[in-house]
Amino acid sequence: MTTSSTPGLARFNTLATGEAAAALHEVCASAAWGSSVLAQRPYADTETLFSASDSAMAELSAEDLAEAMAGHPPIGRPAPGDPASAREQRGMAGASDELRAEMLELNLAYQERFGHVFLICATGATGEQMRDAVKARIGNSPEQEREIVRTELGKINRIRLTRLVEDS
User: 0.70 exceeded by the pTM?
Assistant: First the structure.
């Protein structure tokens, strides 16, 4: 990760508030997270932005986390017109029909148990790794799982923020 300012970060720092809020909403669907990150602009460097993102994520209530998770499609089924999720879930693109069916079944069981989609930072993960993760996590308590989800969302946010401030 770069610790310097980038042209993309400079652009983000100078966006009109509404445009910056919309860009942050594309990173994370939590309004509380977006408001917190937005309020701390301008950012001197990307590390400061990442720290603000991490702090905002740590402060999210259960309701705010639910709002953030609602912005993520199930693994293996990115929404049409959602290039970020499709890119992040690339590990499922070449999955066998058997693995896709197994992930659908596991996603549904997870959602029934926890009341939300299975969320993992899928960037760089294979379909098998995602399947193994949902199998390993489905036995967690709701409290354990909420904190794992918080960590995974933080990782996703950093990846998406990197794209935001490195694209100029």
Answer: yes
